[in-house]
Request: fold
Amino acid sequence: MELTTEHLILREFEEQDWQAVLAYQSDPLYLRYTPWTQRTEEDVQRFVHTFMYWRSEQPRRKFQLAITLRSNGAFIGNCGIRGNINHLWDAEVGYELDHHYWGRNYTTEAVTALMKFGFEEMQLHRVWAYCIADNVASARVMEKVGMRFEGRLYENEWMKDRWWDTLLYAILEQDWRAQQK
Reply:
């Protein structure tokens, strides 16, 4: 599967992508809001292989795609839409980007493409996402793509020896279609 936007190509993971993933996932700025304190080659290779395995699932409900620049093919992050296997109308989106590419609207562009795929191809009713409450930039992406703030979950994520609040956002198909007009 491949999705193309103005500046990006979202494509299936390839075996060699683990090296680019390791480079940005080892960065302290990336690690700040993740449960990991460090990443190893083996960790990231397993991470990439998981997404490659998802391609073989039938019916396929999970799509995690490499984010690459259309201009030069540079690998800059990944994003995904993961359908709920128990509720076929519902899916979660997630994303991560190499910090060198933050602030350029690439994440917003990628998530917009995922939502279009979700509502048009997966026939979803609802797409949701969450982030650590301290991750203001991630919350801003959700707002920019038209997701509505649904609530703050207090101390529901345990990582790095402390509890973290998370913010929950979602958008319904009819709201997404209305904003497309």
